[in-house]
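Final report, section 2: Outcomes. Of the targets proposed, N-acetylaspartate synthetase is the one most frequently requested by collaborating groups, and we therefore present its record in full.
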Amino acid sequence: MCFVVTKSFLLTCCLPIFLMGMRYYFSRKVILHYLDCALHTDMSDIEQYYMKPPGSCFWVAVLDGNVVGIVAARGNEEDNTVELRRMSVDSNYRGKGIAKALGRKVLEFAMLNNYSSVVLGTTAVKMAAHKLYESLGFKHVGVIEHYALPGMTRSLLERMFFQVRYHRYRLQLREE
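The predicted structure is given below as tokens.
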């Protein structure tokens, strides 16, 4: 289509490279802003956000003296749920059952503290993450299209080149 409109081979060849470059730029920009927001909110003071509030906790997976994974749980007394948050495993240690063990730790915590369900939200694009949650018993309950990550400006260019789907999962532990 570009060639039909412009009659230029050079422009037709350069356009995909330009578009991929814009996609890379805006993806990187959004992700770096998101990480900056995380590092200046809950991850800047893990004790305050996850250790002090009742019904919340934070775990670290250590292997051979190295931190290889983390996960947090944040209780919500209003609806008697606990949210699984910040699950992450070092890419060099994925596929070894660490994420599953961390997820089970949150489920155990929720049961010991009499929560009725565990919820989580993820923007993960890798199917392995979704399969992990389902293997732990979570049910997919919905998707929010064009989700805005913390730190996103939602500018027109940002929306054109970077879109996020936010998946919600729930595991009912007991009826209320």
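The first strand starts at residue 57 and ends at 63.
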